[in-house]
Amino acid sequence: MTETFPQTTFAPLKPDRPVGIIGYGAYVPQYRLPASEVARIWKGGRAATPIKEKAVAGLDEDVATMAIEAARNALKRAGIPADHLRAVWVGSESHPYAVKPTSTIVAEAIGAVPHIQAADWEFACKAGTEALVASMGLVGSGMARYAMAIGADTAQGRPGDELEFTAASGAAAYIVGPAEEALAVIEASFSYVTDTPDFWRRPEQKFPMHGQRFTGEPAYFKHITEAAQHLMKATGTTAQDFRYAVFHQPNTKFPQRVASLLGFTPEQIKPGLLSPIIGNTYAAAALIGLAATLDVAQPGDRILVTSFGSGAGSDAFIIRVTEAITQRRGVAPTTQAYIARRVEIDYGTYVRFRGKLAS
Amino acid sequence: MEIPRHWRLKQQRYALVGEVCPHCEEKIFPPRDVCPYCGNEAKTQFTFSGRGTVFSFTTLTEAPAGFEQAAPYTVALVKLEEGPVITAQLTDLGDRPVEIGMPVEMVTRKIRAEDEARGVILYGYKFRPVMETPK
């Protein structure tokens, strides 16, 4: 197929009107479940664990509440009133309702209603970055001055399944606006999408299924490398042109390996590689990694961000940090500040928090 | 189900939207359209900062109907930076002991779900110990 339609002929996404990130905000709940706790209960305590520990939402938290806090942080950094937003879009695979938008709850809570677009997006772990691409289009076309894209999840894993080590909770919000107001300009984007059933959840099922090893080569690695390589080729950049890179992070090894495949060093992915200490936050994963990277980046730094969503697809972005970042990022808590407020829980507390007890 | 009542209160519940009196400039929460300080009409919206301190508190182990799933939890009288004292749950306490005078900040959280698996989810303000912001 690629012979008849060579993908390299497709140009990267670049809006007519340059756009950028004018505000960003992360949220990570304070509870941590050590992977050793899952191993203790299900593997006789003897298992190589894919991460150190994961972030778990508390009893009174869900995708809406986490998205609200991330959105408030993004608004603080943007320095705009919430009613200047023309879109509030929330990407997640764990929306609190099957029918009734999360985005209206978030938009109401931050004060963005009623003159907005609002909708929930679903594409496994890339629902948030898809909303970000849509925001680039809305702002880049001139239809809107500001649009907000959020990725948030309270991911579930079947008790005893491999996913229980890593399925975590978190949120990140981005406000896209004109490039001249941006603290980081989005230079270009490119996506790679195929029908690849590596991970799914059927309606009314509580826990997802996955294709075991099939989630690796044909899914995660194929889509991320295709999206990232094409974007770099089309923009004439190589790994050396970037100060940092962020990849979707379902565990510790996958992002490390895909970074190496694409020519990036461990130093380049270090600030954004959070899965070892917060787990896989699904639709928030790449976006929280980007937030942590923006927290430390300097003006002029380029960042390559590539998400991955099962089913499957990847969105890649080239982001260039501007002078404005030094003035504005200090007004909201850093991603690391959220990670630092750590309350360790045991497996029993985790089961209660995540509603895994039958009653 | 009390959907209309909760729906009417959503702004104050989600975001601490109250009022400011145009006559004596006192801040009012919850909003009541008449200033409790000077008695004049007060309908100007005012969004509170969400910062305050614990004025008093108690921990509930026997929770009222609808809140059983959250017990044990702590309820506090929070004195808002702008003046009013309001009742709210504290959250994200971890192992931290609560103290009178402790600085707290507003977060929007799940308050309860009417009919756990099928009903409307109610969101509203709670308060947590203040997080550090750099610089």
From TrEMBL, chain A:
Pfam families assigned: ACP_syn_III_C
Signal sequence annotation: none
GO molecular function terms attached to this record: hydroxymethylglutaryl-CoA synthase activity
Gene3D superfamilies, sorted: 3.40.47.10
Beta-ketoacyl-[acyl-carrier-protein] synthase III C-terminal domain mapped to chain residues: 233-320
Listed SUPFAM superfamilies: Thiolase-like
Sorted UniProt keywords: Transferase
Source species, domain of life: Bacteria
InterPro entries on file: ACP_syn_III_C, HMG_CoA_Synthase, Thiolase-like
One GO term (biological process): acetyl-CoA metabolic process
PANTHER family: 3-HYDROXY-3-METHYLGLUTARYL COENZYME A SYNTHASE (PTHR43323), HYDROXYMETHYLGLUTARYL-COA SYNTHASE (PTHR43323:SF2)
NCBIfam families linked: HMG_CoA_syn_Arc, PRK04262.1
HAMAP family, sorted: HMG_CoA_synth_arch (MF_01409)
Protein name: Beta-ketoacyl-[acyl-carrier-protein] synthase III C-terminal domain-containing protein
Annotated source species: Thermanaerothrix daxensis
Organism taxonomic ancestry: Bacteria, Bacillati, Chloroflexota, Anaerolineae, Anaerolineales
From TrEMBL, chain B:
All copies of domain ChsH2 rubredoxin-like zinc ribbon, residue ranges: 12-42
Record-linked Gene3D superfamilies: 6.10.30.10
SUPFAM superfamilies assigned: Nucleic acid-binding proteins
InterPro entries recorded: ChsH2_C, ChsH2_Znr, NA-bd_OB-fold, Thioester_dehydratase-like
Domain of life of the source: Bacteria
Domain ChsH2 C-terminal OB-fold: 48-109
Any Pfam family the entry gives: zf-ChsH2
Stated name of the protein: Transcriptional regulator
